[in-house]
Every structure is written in structure tokens, then in C-alpha cells.
Amino acid sequence: MNATIDRSLVSALPLFSRMSDAELDDILSMAVSRRYAVGTSVFEQGQAADQFFVLLYGRLRVTQVTPEGQQIIIRMVNPGDLFGIAKALQRNDYPGTSMAVAESVALAWPMTCWDEILERHPSLTINAMQTMGGRLQEAHTRLRELSTEEVERRVAHTVLRLANQSGKKEAGGVRIDFPVSKQDIAEMTGTTLHTVSRILTAWESAGLVEGGRRKLLLKDPHRLLLLGDGHVPGLL
User: What pTM value is reported for the model?
Assistant: First the structure.
């Protein structure tokens, strides 16, 4: 096993559940550990996809630039997530850019090992398929929200999703535990920075959220859920 990688770092991750110590040793022997400072890209859109990754620590933002030149946020990568699996999408290049929004550590494998690892470890194949299925379901949910919901409901669902993925409970509510800007939320919800600013200002005045150093605190998640689901009127 790679001496720089402690098996205990991955044994508790859902992706590697049901795997024996020997299987983990085999997989980790092909990996390297890499650290990424804030603002550092792991890979960039269009770059040849020569590696795939699992995030151990931190947070990454995956963005894509459309043919029209508009940047959109595809997803946030959370600890334990498998990402950069271009080969599973039958691509030779990365479809987006992955950048660290917090100090991050990831394991990286050569893309040439993808087929070999899945063939030798069927339980990992099942877990990877479940991961991709969950990601597809989230993409469908976001598409439905963009197609059918008013903007304030979309923003509510987005901040609740971020809190569910990376929220930490505090005395005053649930804090999204990584820097997320108003521009980030605008890109994730298909709206403008101005609109998101108006929504968050209204929510803050109503006691639903509290800003601070770009780490949003959800003071009343239940009311945000009711707002997102259309059970209570919006504040705009």
C-alpha cells in the first residue's frame, strides 16, 4: 500500500463500504494523495482526462462554460465523493473545471486503472453505480426546478441542498460549512447576482438566514423548506 495513505482515511467512506482490508490495500496501492489550496484547480474543462479522484477533505466546485461563454456551477464535490470519472461517461476529456473552495485533499488514480479496479472489485462497481445514480437524480431535480419553479423557490431548494450535504448544526441554526457566494448561488439556480442578493436580504430581514464571511447560516430551515415547496408565500 502507498505509505502516505492511511487505510483508515477511506474505510469509513460509503464508496468503499463492504470492502476488506486487503481490497482497500490493493486499491490504495494505485493511488496518490494530493493537497489543493483554495483557488487551485484539480482539473480544467477540456483537459485530457488522465486521472479520477475521491475527495477526502475540503470542498470543490465543478463549473462548466457553455458554448455561449456563460459559466454555470454543475455541482459541489463533498468529502467522500468520487469525481473526475470521465471514462465512465465515455469521454476522453473533463467536461468541467474542478476547483478547491476550501483547503482540500484528494486521492488520485490513473484513468488507465479504472477498468481494472472495477473488474477486480465488484463491490466498488456497485457503489460507484449508486453514486452516479444519485448524481443523475440530483441533476434531474435541478432541471425540474429550473423548468417549473419561481426563482425564490429555486434558491430555497439550493441552499437547503447545500446545507444537507455540508451543513453543521450550531446554536443558531445550520451553517453551510464552506464559502459559498451569492454568485455561486446565482449560477446554481439559473438567475442573476442581483436577484439572489435581493432574496437573501429579504430572508435575512425575516430571520431565515444570516450571512457572514461567505458561510451562510440557515436560522429557520423548516420555513425555508415550506417556502421552497410552495406551502408558504415567498418574501419578494
Answer: 0.84
- Convert the pLDDT of each residue in 157-177 to its tens digit: 999 999 998 888 998 899 998
Element spanning 144, H or E? helix 122-148
**Which residues sit opposite 59 in a β-bridge?**
102
Amino acid identity, position 213: R
What type of residue is 226?
L
Domains and CATH numbers, the chain: 8-134 (2.60.120.10), 149-228 (1.10.10.10)
β partners of residue 52: 109
Longest dimension (CA), the chain: 57
- pLDDT digit string, tens, across residues 190-232: 999 999 999 999 999 999 999 866 689 999 999 999 999 988 8
CA-CA distance, 28 to 6, in Å (whole number)? Answer: 9
